[in-house]
């Protein structure tokens, strides 16, 4: 998975009789934090960002310039400034100006004898005076809460600095007039840095004609083996031919993504592809999954209905979670008697969520391929049906208010329900589609009052803090729902606008 290098530096006291006594201890703190990050910031695929430490503790303008230039040459895209003792605040500027305009975390111990927090507030205060959006964490390396905050910030800054150089491949334009999914270029470029390239779906159709037919057959046989009698061929809407067409579309998207340099993408589908080529459910599932018939692969975000802000939310979630697959859902039906949402969509649920296993065989034990609903999807193919495995999740969605981006974030769970209850609830929407029975940590009215649109995105675990950090680094407003919002305070740049 793509990542960007992380720079770590520490400021010290300029007085020689001071720094000659504490430099060795300070260097040990730098190395300890660097080792902690290296060991605990592994991505799902085993990769990790490069950690670059300054060659010396900063005690003068010249040493600040030297360290800053070292980190710049290493292409560091985020800077952790450590504080272990009192330091001379002005030394931050030769460092920061040499590194460049990157996210900054000010990180200090909490020690009355060696007051790094005094140095942090003095130095970080100077940075904020000049308009730098920084974050502050005070706590010791051994403290679990401090560790979690630091890792969350790094995940967020990694997401921001990686996405700002990425390209979204928009296949076909926005679907069925859904304007909340349309890519608004100016606010997107300002807040996130990524850009958008639109490609007609016709290109996918033409590339489908050139894909390796042996691969197509291999994919079909893989599904037939995994699913057995849960691959419900009906001889009309879903048969070997229509399933193979869906596999061709997946292979075509993979090829065009590679050829055009697309890092994530969205497929319009409706109505041209779904009426004349095939339903996009299986190709979208395969893109978002961390495997296919050739083995493990990186999950590549692909949003159904070409919903750009859904795809961008998913890409953010992917990076802040270390590369986990993400879910795309319609906000479909609320059950007030159960305080439960049924979120389902004929689209790109990653099959990984059926059992949350990296072994596709485990996930596909819980999956059925149904014939697509011919009423909507005349070209046919398979709809993918399963219930997301139970467990804690974080749900979110980017939106625009008067062209200003924001993100709604709510913690919740995929509920653990008896099989018969799931069956009863699914029948109220569409039992042939994938479902998340979502219980949120906010009430119906709070959710309804602020959620941006009909599409919700999710990832396993509590990713709230990292998402909030991301928003603040990007300069957009996080809207946290439920009781959890009391744990987050608007930063100073939000309060003095």
Feature tags:
497 residues, Rossmann fold, L-fucose Isomerase, Chain A, domain 3, 2 domains, six-stranded antiparallel beta barrel, five-stranded parallel β-sheet, elongated
Question: In brief, what are we looking at here?
Answer:
This protein has 497 residues and is an alpha/beta fold. The protein is built from 17 helices and 20 strands. α4 (116-129) links the parallel β4 and β5.
Can you describe what's shown?
- With 497 residues, the chain is α/β, with parallel strands linked by helices.
- The protein folds into 2 domains: 6-159, Rossmann fold (3-Layer(aba) Sandwich); 167-495, L-fucose/L-arabinose isomerase, C-terminal (L-fucose Isomerase, Chain A, domain 3, Alpha-Beta Barrel).
- It has helices at residues 16-40, 61-73, 92-99, 116-129, 144-163, 185-191, 201-208, 213-227, 240-260, 272-276, 281-288, 308-320, 360-364, 419-426, 444-450, 464-474, 492-495; strands at residues 6-10, 51-53, 78-83, 104-108, 134-138, 167-171, 195-199, 264-267, 291-292, 295-296, 302-304, 327-335, 340-344, 368-371, 382-385, 391-401, 404-414, 435-440, 455-460, 477-480.
- The strands form 5 sheets. Strands 12-13-18-17-16-19 form a 6-stranded antiparallel beta barrel, surrounded by 4 helices. Strands 2-1-3-4-5 form a 5-stranded parallel sheet, with helices on both faces.
- Helix 2 runs parallel beside helix 3 and helix 8 packs across helix 9 (240-260).
- The longest helix has 25 residues, at 16-40.
- The two termini are 36 Å apart.
- The model has no long low-confidence stretch (mean pLDDT 94).
């Amino acid at each position: 998975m793509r990542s960007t290098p992380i720079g770590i530096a520490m400021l010290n006291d300029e007085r020689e009789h001071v720094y000659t006594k504490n430099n060795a201890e300070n260097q040990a703190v730098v190395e300890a934090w660097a080792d902690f990050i290296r060991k605990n910031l592994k991505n799902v695929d085993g990769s990790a960002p490069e950690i670059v430490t300054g060659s010396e503790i900063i005690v003068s303008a010249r040493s600040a310039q030297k360290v800053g230039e070292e980190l710049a040459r290493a292409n560091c895209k985020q800077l952790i400034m450590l504080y272990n003792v009192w330091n001379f605040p002005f030394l931050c500027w030769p460092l920061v100006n040499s590194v460049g305009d990157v996210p900054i975390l000010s990180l200090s111990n909490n020690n009355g004898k060696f007051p790094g927090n005094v140095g942090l507030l003095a130095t970080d205060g100077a940075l904020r005076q000049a308009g730098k959006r920084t974050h502050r964490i005070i706590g010791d390396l051994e403290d679990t809460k401090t560790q979690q905050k630091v890792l969350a910030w790094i995940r967020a800054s990694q997401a921001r600095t990686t996405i700002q150089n990425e390209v979204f491949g928009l296949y076909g334009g926005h679907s069925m007039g859904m304007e909340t999914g349309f890519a608004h270029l100016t606010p997107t470029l300002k807040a996130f840095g990524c850009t958008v390239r639109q490609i007609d779906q016709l290109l996918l159709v033409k590339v489908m004609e050139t894909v390796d037919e042996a691969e197509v057959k291999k994919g079909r046989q893989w599904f037939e083996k995994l699913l057995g009698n849960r691959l419900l061929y009906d001889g009309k809407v879903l048969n070997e031919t229509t399933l193979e067409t869906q596999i061709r579309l997946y292979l075509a998207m993979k090829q065009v993504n590679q050829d055009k340099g697309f890092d994530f993408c969205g497929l319009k589908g409706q109505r041209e592809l779904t009426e004349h080529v095939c339903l996009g459910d299986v190709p979208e599932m395969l893109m978002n999954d961390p495997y296919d018939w050739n083995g493990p692969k990186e999950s590549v975000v692909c949003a159904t209905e070409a919903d750009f802000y859904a795809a961008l939310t998913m890409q953010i979630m992917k990076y802040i979670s270390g590369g986990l697959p993400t879910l795309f859902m319609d906000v479909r039906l609320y059950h007030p008697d159960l305080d439960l949402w049924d979120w389902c969509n004929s689209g790109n649920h990653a099959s990984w969520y059926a059992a949350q296993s990296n072994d596709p065989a485990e996930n596909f034990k819980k999956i059925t391929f149904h014939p697509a609903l011919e009423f909507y999807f005349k070209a046919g193919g398979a709809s993918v049906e399963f219930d997301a495995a139970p467990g804690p999740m974080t749900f979110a969605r980017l939106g625009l208010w008067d062209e200003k981006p924001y993100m709604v974030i709510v913690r919740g769970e995929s509920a653990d329900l008896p099989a018969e209850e799931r069956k009863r609830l699914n029948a109220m929407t569409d039992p042939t589609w994938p479902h998340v029975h979502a219980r949120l940590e906010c009430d119906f009215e709070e959710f309804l009052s602020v959620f941006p649109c009909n599409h919700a995105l999710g990832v396993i675990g509590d990713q709230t803090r990292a998402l909030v950090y991301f928003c603040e680094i990007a300069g957009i407003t996080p809207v946290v729902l439920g009781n959890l919002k009391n744990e987050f305070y608007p930063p100073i740049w939000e309060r003095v606008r």
